[in-house]
Amino acid sequence: MRLFIYLFIVVLYSSGNISAQKYKYYRYDTDLLPKEFHKGRREALRKMLPDKSVAVFFSAPVRNRSGDDDYTFHQEPDFYYLTGFVEENSMLIIFKEEQNIGGIKTNEILFIEDKDPGKEVWTGRRLGKDGVTPVLGIKTGMLNTDFDDLKLDFKKFDKILHLKFPQGAVHEHGSKADLYSLVDQFKKKYDGDKEDPFELFEDMAKLRMIKQKEELTLMRKAIDMTCDAEKEVMKSIVPGMYEYQVQSILEFEFKWNGSEYVGFPSICGGGENSCILHYESNRKKLNDKDMMVVDIGAEYHGYSADVTRSMPVNGKFSEEQKAIYNLVFKAQAEGIKLCKPGASFFEPNKAAKKIIAEGLKELGIIKSEDDVSKYFMHGTSHHLGLDVHDVQTSYELVSGNVITVEPGIYIPEGSDCDPKWWNIGVRIEDDVLITDNGCEVLSAKAPRTIEVIEALMKENSIFKIQH
Ligand code: GLY
Ligand code: MN
Ligand code: MN
Fold first, then answer.
1. Which of 4, 251, 294, 352 is least surrounded, with the fewest CB atoms within 10 Å of its CB?
2. How many Å apart are CA 342 and CA 437, to the nearest integer?
3. Strand residues in 153-258 grouped as ranges (E)
4. Does residue 350 contact residue 467 with C-beta atoms inside 8 Å?
5. What share of the chain is helix, strand, coil (3-state, %, to 5)?
6. Which domain holds residue 383?
7. For residue 73, with 0-12 CB atoms within 10 Å meaning exposed, 13-18 middle and 19 or more buried, which class applies?
8. Are residues 201 and 285 in the same domain?
9. Taking a C-beta distance cutoff of 8 angstroms, is the pair 386, 303 a contact?
10. In this structure, are residues 270 and 256 in contact, taking their beta carbons and an 8 Å threshold?
11. Which residues line ligand 1 (CB under 6 A)?
């Protein structure tokens, strides 16, 4: 008996090793979300699904950039959350109850493209069907080409849930293995577009709005490197530099620290461009008197940061820049104070708007507080996570939410106020975790006060090049 147990353990151990060996070049990162995380998320969703239901998810489509060149593929966030799988042309089916499909007992199936050594020489390794269970921990893996003939009658389910179908999936002629075919076959099997995609969207949003500890580890990493990038930018900026050079410094920091992508196009707006909320062309040469808005976010293993710092290009705030900056700072501090469980999502916005309205009136920039939205034209907050503007279905803050608090003032040239205020744009944005007792500012590492910013801007950096 002892010998039997020993042999059993050896076989179990070596089979794990064989599979680790087999997939050793499939992915290199050692801090990816573990398969147990994704399994837990699928279980949490399954609990929310109604009896006799099935939920179907599709990967993101590949998008063509030009000619035979595609945009870098980025997985659909819900699909990634439930699988950790980052390949294209795939579909996940989650059943509420275990099914017997032609003798296979399962409660979940991931459909993927077959391995193809010829193609893999060009485009990199694919997991292959046999890797679905050992690598991803999903009970059943099948090939896309198996879906059409699958002995599964969708009509037996009381509810068939899906999200909005992926837009723009391109069909390879005659293929049953691409995303277009999967969607097409699925629509035929369940007979039309009768379900409302909002129901599953809501379930997924409920899950994604409360970050698990594994997600927070990755978010902290993304936010940390984003703060480091802001600091490096502060040390490097000098008049004569181009906005795209600022972008290159911060994106170097991201890449150097292992970020796969930017969570959104980096906003590096100087002078007149500091007043364009989502400016992203970044082509201007920076002038001595320019104010600069740097709104950036590294994405790390799917999770995005979103941090904004504003600074004077020459390292010293003018009196006008100081007045506007301090007003935004005060509004943000008040907003952050209101971030706690049980509070309304809208409270920080309301408080920040009030402070900015009063302040702008006092400075003579607006005549009536009702005009505040002329210069502060957005809300202070959104959820943050797998999407930079992350999903949301409820408006009471709870522990585990991560939201931004980002008031701003933008006074473009030609505004109806003293021209001394023109072309000053300031936004201060932090990422805030709601905790059991209040909140934690995850991006506190990036300096926020005028004194600390000015001091840091005097420091040196390998990127500080006099122009
Ligand atoms: N970076 C976009 C935003 O702050 O919402
Ligand atoms: Mn931002
Ligand atoms: Mn934001």
1. 4
2. 10
3. 159-162
4. no
5. 40, 20, 40
6. 211-466
7. middle
8. no
9. yes
10. no
11. 264, 295, 306, 382, 388, 406, 429
- Give the tens place of pLDDT for each residue, 353-395: 999 999 999 999 999 999 999 999 999 999 999 999 999 999 9
Centre of ligand 3 from the C-alpha of residue 254, in Å = 18
* Ligand sitting nearest the alpha carbon of 262: 1
Task: Tell me, in angstroms, the distance from the centre of ligand 1 to residue 394's CA.
Answer: 20
200 and 215 in a single domain? The answer is no
Mean pLDDT score of the chain: 94
Ligand 2 center from residue 225 Cα (angstroms): 15
* Per-residue CA distances from 337 to 333, 340, 351, 434 (Å): 6, 8, 10, 11
Structure tokens at 181: 């075919």
Determine the Cα–Cα distance for residues 458 and 437; give it in Å rounded to an integer: 38
- 16 in a domain, yes or no? no
Are 279 and 238 in contact, with CB atoms under 8 Å apart? no
Q: Whose CA is nearest to atom 5 of ligand 1?
A: 389
Q: How far apart, in whole angstroms, are the C-alpha atoms of residue 141 and residue 274?
A: 50
Q: Calculate Rg over the CA atoms of the chain.
A: 26
Beta-bridge partners for 281: none
Give me the count of residues in the chain: 467
| Contact (CB, 8 A) for 401 and 439 | no
Tell me the two tokens of residue 6: 């020993």
Report the nearest-CA residue for atom 4 of ligand 1.
Answer: 306
Q: Per-residue pLDDT tens for 198-248?
A: 899 999 999 999 999 999 999 999 999 999 999 999 999 999 999 999 999
286 & 410 share domain: yes
Task: Report the amino acid identity of residue 33.
Answer: L
Look at residues 165, 186, 207 and tell me which one is the last residue of a structural domain. 207
pTM for the model stands at 0.95
Q: Ligand 2 being an ion, which residues bring their Cβ within 5 A of it?
A: 295, 306, 429
Compute, in angstroms, the gap from residue 132 CA to the centroid of ligand 2.
36
Could you tell me if 48 and 154 are in contact, meaning their C-beta atoms sit under 8 angstroms apart?
no
pLDDT at 91: 98
Separation of alpha carbons 442 and 467, rounded Å: 35
Which numbered atom of ligand 1 lies nearest the CA of 308? 4
